[in-house]
Amino acid sequence: MFHRILIANRGEIALRVIRAARELGVETVAVHSTADSNSLHVRFADQSLCIGPPPSKESYLNIPAILSAAEVSGADAIHPGYGFLSENAEFAEMVQHSGLGWIGPRPEMIRMMGNKIRAKEAMKEGGLPQLPGSEGVVQDERDLGRLAEKIGFPVILKAAAGGGGRGMKIVREKEQLSQMYRTASAESLAAFGNGDMYVERYVERPRHIEIQIVADEHGNVIHLGERECSVQRRHQKMLEESPSPALNDKLRERMGRVAVDAMKKVRYNNVGTIEFLPPSAMETCTSSATWNGRATSRSRSSRTSTATSSIWASASALSSAGTRRCWKRAPRRR
């Protein structure tokens, strides 16, 4: 058990960590920019240190300043929360090399899950079935045309290093492939510094269901149930509901078991998410299609043509050092 942890984050994220640490009897150190000196997480922590001016790159993304704050405060470990540096494998390694504990996935896990192609390969090795798609990076437009013909239209182009819907294009006709590929690759290069793309079959109007995974350092993995995340706008979730109204007990148990088994096989640690794409025909309790990255679901539909007798899966697990996107029911107004 750590005696004192530094929280490399701010706001509500840091407050959650402070509350959990207090329940465990662990002291907390808050870091903050000059603009956040009066924030709640600064007031509630046992210690606080200013690490820079308001711009995030000069404070919450300033690795030397955070490591110096940990040394000055006598912290045993760093908790990055989520966002900022939580998925930065280099930061995790620097924390460990400094002799501090890292409260998050191992650096190799962050690297693996941070690249969707590597994550697809890892999940395939872990036994998670895949959506039809490219085995790796699309090499060029000719390679893309061959793969799309093999997969069958519609297909979806996705950024290997991407997320949040950026660098993602749905292609329904062969004539659109080249232009969509160039556009998506340029978007990915601008957003992530990496223009690599891969292609998968596009699932029409599936549901988007996530299974939350928690894994310790001793190989124990559990899941905390599912979240229905099908209500989206521009590939971004707007509402999460738990439990999902689309699943029956048999399918819920199967999805949870598949997710846990896959994470055990890749030796995942800490908190992560497996995202499933069941077709909306799940209301008829047929089967499911599993996960295709973090932003591929669409509106609900009565369409049944995508339901099959197998579970499909595509890409990865989203690593996070803290609980992500916890959904709470709003109080009912009287």
Count of separate structural domains: 3
Distance between the termini: 45 Å
Percent of residues in helices: 25-40%
Radius of gyration: 21 Å
What name does the CATH topology of the largest domain carry?
D-amino Acid Aminotransferase, Chain A, domain 1
Largest sheet, spatial ordering of strands: 3-2-1-4-5
CATH superfamily of the largest domain: ATP-grasp fold, B domain
In DSSP terms, counting alpha (H) and pi (I) runs of 4 or more, how many helices?
A: 9
**Which CATH-level-2 architecture of the largest domain?**
2-Layer Sandwich
Overall geometry: globular
Order of helices and strands: EHEHEHEHEHHHEEHEEEEEHE
Give the beta-strand count: 13
Task: Find the structural class using helix and strand composition.
Answer: alpha/beta
Question: Which percent band covers the strand fraction?
Answer: 15-25%
Largest sheet: 5 strands, parallel
Mean pLDDT: 81
Query: What is the CATH first-level class name of the largest domain?
Result: Alpha Beta
